[in-house]
Task: inverse folding
């Protein structure tokens, strides 16, 4: 490998630097209409009627779609002129429009663990019930977006408000009204696993402690909002949908199932996408195709920011009741956790997020006696979804806060407590005693966690900081240091596939089921192909995010593409190379063993003759005389099916300074030591880690999606939902271990989310440390300034001498 | 057909104005409703797709353009408000030496991932470096306070800005 492992500059930059990328809002089709969604203004109500008459009458409105009973539209008395604006048409959507959860656990997992997973219909447009603020009720389609938004304001809903259920624990109580009567209650899912003998561990331990951690609702909030453009042109062979989605094939499958079109007649394309940080198929992915098919014109919907904050990628929102059993030497011998996830009005992702929390809860520690139960509760809020670090952020927060509390109780240095609990290097691979979501046992495949910790501590000068900390505290400055480690199951299946074509120009085209939206795949995946095939990187072009180019695709999410698409490319490129060598051997009158490919040219190792790869491709054009056993064309194909996940890991250490008067936290230094197996491109990986850490700093200190007691989201703009900005964050220092995964040929592990997973824990551990000897007892995240000040007051009241 | 008593929707508010806009050095006369925001006019009427909408409330900087040389959020400006002003987008700055240095620097320093914030960052930094040829890291971070990035963590963008500033200074010294 020559390019793999080097910071090859990004192949995809030019269009973004010129402002010529093609995001969903940049795609316009002739005759295109624009849509706006009428959404429920209340959290819970019986919907009795929708009055669309004023909306239909607005010039430029073409149609309104609803599923609810409509107030009769008054007949118009004005004559309809043949050349004048036509009144909009009302389309009742009945019988067609609901979807069920699509991420049920695989059978292998269900047979082992027997989770409860309840499914129910979720209407695409509310027909008789409103179950959350933001729930779609009607779609207005107009000649342009301004008119569509005007018309949206003219639609009037008639409803009788009901009490909303906004607290998941209340929603689970006996007698709480069920959001979906057919389910009987609001417990949508439950899963419990255990390892070892937790009861014995608790009985024998020197001490036990219990905590309640609250991790509030936080949002993915990419910089680009979502959008869907659907076009149904017979000449195109069916329905084409452009969508800012991470999973085009899943989107196609859902559209097919709900609208009754064969999947082969649907093409879903994801254009350039401005980040995503959590995927899934949303209502509009189905509603826009429906509208386009009904109206016979392309229809586009572009989400605005407040819609995005209210409706898209709501995450975290977990409450954990934790018990820990530990000995006086700091060894944790048992851990129990019962947690509730507030899934909002529907859970489309099954156990993805809660079970991620389960499998990642113990981070890098050897805690063999372990019992955890996760419950998903339904409430009248936006559906919960995976967002960067899905489920793992909360896991790391719980575990690493427990570590700090144990350290505090025993008056041990937090670094030392971790040393005593980390899985030693010579015990790897380490079986954690429970299955992963794919049903395969969780076995940490490779790594050296103690060395990772020591490296991070050395890089941040931990001992020196402790000394300076004492002096600075004397001067009244609240400085602290915090550690957090994590593991990350990455490279999840089910598969990813690629086709690689070698053209007669010597150019190479890779068609991939992955879906690049900022991860630099056009570079990293090309590096793998370049090295295996023996070509320069600039002859390689990658196409992805399009259901038309690979039959089966999964998409890009859960830090999986380097593992899945990367290894698919390694295999397919090797097959292409082997064929090229055989053809070249035939052309040069030698054997493949005496040839190698360098810079796109097949050269003799024992002579000076050569042919270009372009000439090789031309030699097997269909109709040519082919050598024995060689088929026409230079195209290979491979689906990579991972055996299970690989295990990335990292240790984060942060120093902070807290202003006791304002509650402001300045992050001073931040070090990450990170293992994602073979690093394909160090600058790209660093970028992912640094970006992830900053995302996590936002989650630690600023970002909270706040519902009021009527179930309305108060944080519906960037003024209220505060993302981290350039002045909020320090430089972040990244170091790489490289423990190759034994699970795949390239030895890679995933790296896109790890930065976010441990950052909140590291930051808030540092904050608690900064206020010592005052005992802040940070049990929640985020910790916004006003909450931090309140905790300081509470801690001071508990211990005025501190 | 329209209901003139419907709140907020008045027929005369939607009558188009002929606006004279100077964009990227060219004069245009564009017929638009008075309520159309500048970002939409630049994107839809003038096909300047580098202007990105990220929040539509002036908070994220993805729509940053220069108005008389100063950065402005084009999503909270009506097109009618900038009649007679000099508007520049990334497309119009393509031949500017400072912009070219920034684009090169962004590429070298991996200062973009999804690319959505990139035009706004480039436009803001271009105007900064024209006035402040030797900014510090802290000054750059403060300047970028109005530009959100969810991917890079800002660090490589800051590095790119420092690198570009240095390259521009070297170039100026070399050309005397």
Result:
């Amino acid at each position: 490998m020559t390019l793999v492992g080097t910071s090859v500059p990004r192949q995809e930059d030019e269009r973004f630097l010129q402002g010529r990328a093609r995001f969903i809002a940049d795609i316009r089709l002739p005759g295109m209409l624009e849509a706006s969604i009428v959404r429920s203004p209340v959290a819970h109500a019986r919907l009795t009627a929708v009055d669309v008459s004023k909306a239909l009458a607005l010039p430029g409105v073409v149609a309104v779609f609803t599923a609810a009973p409509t107030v009769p539209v008054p007949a118009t008395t004005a004559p309809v002129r043949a050349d004048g604006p036509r009144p909009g048409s009302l389309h009742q959507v009945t019988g067609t429009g609901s979807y069920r959860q699509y991420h049920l656990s695989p059978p292998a997992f269900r047979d082992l663990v027997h989770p409860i997973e309840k499914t129910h219909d979720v209407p695409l447009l509310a027909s008789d019930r409103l179950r959350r603020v933001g729930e779609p009720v009607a779609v207005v389609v107009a000649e342009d977006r301004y008119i569509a938004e005007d018309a949206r304001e003219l639609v009037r809903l008639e409803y009788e408000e009901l009490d909303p259920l906004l607290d998941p624990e209340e929603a689970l109580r006996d007698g709480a009204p069920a959001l979906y009567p057919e389910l009987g209650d609001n417990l949508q899912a439950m899963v419990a696993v255990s390892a070892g003998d937790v009861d014995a561990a608790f009985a024998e331990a020197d001490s036990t402690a219990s905590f309640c951690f609250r991790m509030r609702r936080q949002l993915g909030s990419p910089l680009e909002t979502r959008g869907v453009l659907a076009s149904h042109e017979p000449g195109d062979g069916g329905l084409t949908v452009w969508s800012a989605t991470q999973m085009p094939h899943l989107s196609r499958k859902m559209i097919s199932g709900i609208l009754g079109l064969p999947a082969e007649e649907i093409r879903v394309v994801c254009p350039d996408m401005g980040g995503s940080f959590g995927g899934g198929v949303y209502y509009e992915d189905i509603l826009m195709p429906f509208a386009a098919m009904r109206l016979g014109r392309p229809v586009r919907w572009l989400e605005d920011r407040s819609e995005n904050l209210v409706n898209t990628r709501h995450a975290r929102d977990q409450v954990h009741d934790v018990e820990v059993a530990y000995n006086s030497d700091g060894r944790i011998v048992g851990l129990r956790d019962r947690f509730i996830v507030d899934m909002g009005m529907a859970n489309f992702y099954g156990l993805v997020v809660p079970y991620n929390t389960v499998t990642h809860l113990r981070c890098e520690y050897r805690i063999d006696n372990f019992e955890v139960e996760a419950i998903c509760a339904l409430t009248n809020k936006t559906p919960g979804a995976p967002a960067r670090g899905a489920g793992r952020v909360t896991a790391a927060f719980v575990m690493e806060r427990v570590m700090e509390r144990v350290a505090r109780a025993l008056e041990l240095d937090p670094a030392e407590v971790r040393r005593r609990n980390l899985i030693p290097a010579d015990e790897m691979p380490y079986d954690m005693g429970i299955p992963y979501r794919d049903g395969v046992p969780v076995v940490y495949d490779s790594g050296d966690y103690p060395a990772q910790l020591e490296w991070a501590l050395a890089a941040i000068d931990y001992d020196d900081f402790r000394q300076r900390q004492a002096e600075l505290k004397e001067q009244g400055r609240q400085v602290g240091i915090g550690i957090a480690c994590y593991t990350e199951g990455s490279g999840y299946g089910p598969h990813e596939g690629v086709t690689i074509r070698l053209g007669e120009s010597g150019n190479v085209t890779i068609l991939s089921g992955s879906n690049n939206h900022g991860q630099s795949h056009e570079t990293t995946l090309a590096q793998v192909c370049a090295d295996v095939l023996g070509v320069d990187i600039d002859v390689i072009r990658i196409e992805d995010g399009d259901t038309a180019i690979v039959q089966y695709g999964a998409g890009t999410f859960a830090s999986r593409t380097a593992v899945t698409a990367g290894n698919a490319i390694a295999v397919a490129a090797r097959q292409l190379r082997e064929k090229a060598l055989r053809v070249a051997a035939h052309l040069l009158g030698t054997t493949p063993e005496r040839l190698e490919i360098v810079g796109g040219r097949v050269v003799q190792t024992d002579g000076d003759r050569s042919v270009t790869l372009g000439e090789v491709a031309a030699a097997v054009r269909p109709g040519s005389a082919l050598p024995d056993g060689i088929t026409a064309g230079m195209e290979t194909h491979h689906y990579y099916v991972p055996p299970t996940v690989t295990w990335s890991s990292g240790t984060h250490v942060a120093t902070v300074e807290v202003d006791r008067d304002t509650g402001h936290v300045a992050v001073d230094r931040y070090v990450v030591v990170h293992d994602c197996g073979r690093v394909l491109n160090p600058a790209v990986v660093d970028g992912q880690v640094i970006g992830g850490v900053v995302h996590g700093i936002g989650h630690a200190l600023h970002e909270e999606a706040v519902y009021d007691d009527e179930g309305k989201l108060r944080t519906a703009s960037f003024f209220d939902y505060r993302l981290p900005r350039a002045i909020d964050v320090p430089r972040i220092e990244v170091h790489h271990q490289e423990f190759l995964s034994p699970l795949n040929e390239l030895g890679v592990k995933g790296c896109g989310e790890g930065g976010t997973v441990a950052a909140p824990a590291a930051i808030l551990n540092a904050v608690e440390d900064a206020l010592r000897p005052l005992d802040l007892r940070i049990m929640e995240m985020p910790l916004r300034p006003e909450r931090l000040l309140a905790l300081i007051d509470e801690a001071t009241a508990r211990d005025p001498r501190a | 057909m329209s209901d003139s008593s419907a709140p907020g929707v008045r027929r005369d508010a939607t009558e188009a104005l002929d606006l004279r806009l100077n964009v990227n050095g060219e004069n245009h006369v564009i017929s638009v409703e008075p309520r159309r925001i500048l970002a939409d006019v630049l994107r839809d009427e003038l096909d300047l797709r580098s202007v990105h909408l990220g929040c539509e409330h002036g908070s994220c900087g993805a729509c940053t353009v220069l108005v008389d040389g100063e950065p402005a959020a084009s999503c909270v400006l009506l097109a009618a408000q900038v009649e007679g002003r000099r508007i520049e987008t990334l497309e119009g700055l393509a031949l500017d030496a400072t912009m070219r240095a920034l684009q090169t620097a962004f590429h070298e320093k991996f200062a973009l991932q999804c690319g959505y914030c990139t035009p706004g960052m480039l436009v803001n930094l271009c105007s900064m470096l024209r006035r402040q040829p030797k900014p510090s890291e802290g000054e750059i971070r403060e300047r970028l306070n109005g530009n959100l990035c969810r991917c890079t963590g800002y660090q490589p963008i800051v590095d790119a800005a420092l690198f570009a500033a240095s390259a521009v200074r070297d170039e100026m010294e070399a050309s005397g």
About this structure: Confidence is low (pLDDT under 50) at residues 1-6 of chain B. Helices of chain B lie at 38-45, 97-108, 118-131, 137-143, 155-174. Residues 155-174 of chain B form the longest helix (20 residues). Chain B touches chain A through 59 residues (CB under 8 Å).
